Amino acid sequence: MTQRIDDYALIGDLQTAALVGRDGSIDWLCLPRFDSAACFAALLGDEDNGHWRIAPKGATNCTSRRYAEDTLVLETFWETRTGTVKVVDFMPQRDKAPDVVRIVEGVSGTVEMNAVLRLRFDYGSIVPWVRRADGHRVAVAGPDSVWLRSEPPVKTWGQQFGTWSSFTVSAGEQVAFVLTWHPSHEPRPVLVDPFESLEHSLADWREWAARCTYQGPYRDAVVRSLITLKALIYAPTGGIVAAPTTSLPEELGGVRNWDYRACWLRDSSLTLGALLSAGYVEEAAAWRDWLLRAVAGDPADLQIMYGPAGERRLPETTLPWLRGYADSAPVRIGNAAVEQLQLDVYGEVMDSLYRAREAGIPPERHAWNLQLSLLGFLESTWREPDEGLWEVRGPRRHFVHSKVMAWAAADRAVRTLEEDPSLPGDPSRWRAMRDEIHAEVCEKGYDPVRNTFTQAYGSMELDAATLLIPRIGFLPPEDPRVVGTVDAVRRELMQGGYVRRYSTAGPSVDGLPGEEGTFLVCSFWLADALLLTGRAKEARELFERLVGLCSDLGLLAEEYDPVTGRQLGNFPQAFSHIGLVGTALALAAAADEDAADEEQGPALGS
Question: Pairing mode, if any, of strands 317-318 and 332-333?
């Protein structure tokens, strides 16, 4: 039976990540990087495509589970007729080779455990050759090699193209399994002590979480989201992947299945804001440096996304041997949207670097020259249609959000030059560009009859991205056109209390068949817009409903289907958790301001 998307837990080592189901099975793991081929792909197929399950004999799903406080160490509990057992799953931050550690601990009584490991390299398509060596089971196929051992040793045997074991644990006993990947041409990897690794992992995560400066309401949800964002950072470079998975569907049984194991530029501004607001300057600086390396080169060659180390080639292909999650095919790897023109990313880059400078992150000497080069290219192309931030696979359009972000690029240039006149550049040139874009958007992207900005010039459709207009600074929150846009989005894009990106009914904007769920980050954007336009109570109510959608472990996918009550899309999704952090901090700041005003009021009137 297929696990729900939100039935999965995340573990990771800051270079890759795995998903662990309620049934004790690791069904997704790419080694050695987020975007490497999966060796466990049951998530997108079945058990024959690779998984690793440890559970009590005859058990289905666990009794309960949790993360050890302020960590990414998963604790899964099973209560059985003969006793209770706990399985601790984690990936220690690596020195070189990636490890997955699973520690089975007896809590009470005696429990018989079963384990089965089916390694399938290259996304579940290659069955490795397995042999014994130095107390390990060693699986090899082409460039990949995986070593499995247990402490204390337990008996294993081969069956049905898998490695099986059966053992018992009593109260106070522990059995640890360690799975280590390394290139098959290299000698055996260095052995890690699973119990020492657990202590180090707990300490590392708690030390990191303690750096969070936010102490307001919903702190547990904020810290869990920040830990999730940290887990999606590729530590060697500072890049952050949108999600650790590919092809988890936006509609069950549909074709809206995409690979999110890449780093999108548009995430940069929101990621920087979330990290900086919570006190994580080091991670924000690493992301800034990744951004500068990734976008270096001809501005005409700027991409909307890159690989975790800044790779440019992300060709899209399908994997026909995988049936897809809940029969949602095709399964895609790579992303053809990398070749699209999306003008908003120039604004995202400019805004990100402006925020970094504003936060006191020391500027790189070459960064401003790079920004001027990007602006020069945008100056000659902003009038063109593009595919927009939603990466539509229909015809190009003059998307309002793209134009607004082009305005933001010019605006951040003007602000930077005003704040630091020693920098080279002509602020009057960028003011003229800013003013021209502003006038055109207000003329062509606004529907005066309905009092709302639209998705594209001349379009009747709405777009949740227009909720960002006041936050970007394009218009003040009190502007009637902003208030009208917020009301129109609530009226036309809300479903079951949450926000869709845009309408998929009627003529398809995105060139794809089928429907999709409500988009979680868009719902957070609505909460932000409600707060900015003076409707704090409604903003808080929406935020609390959104927090209520988090899984029992505090995780969010990309979308939510209010009809079936299921999370949809790739999981966990950085954009969704960035939205949660940003809205929580905005609500807390507004509450502090209100409290200060109330405290100040009587004194002023006395």
Answer: antiparallel
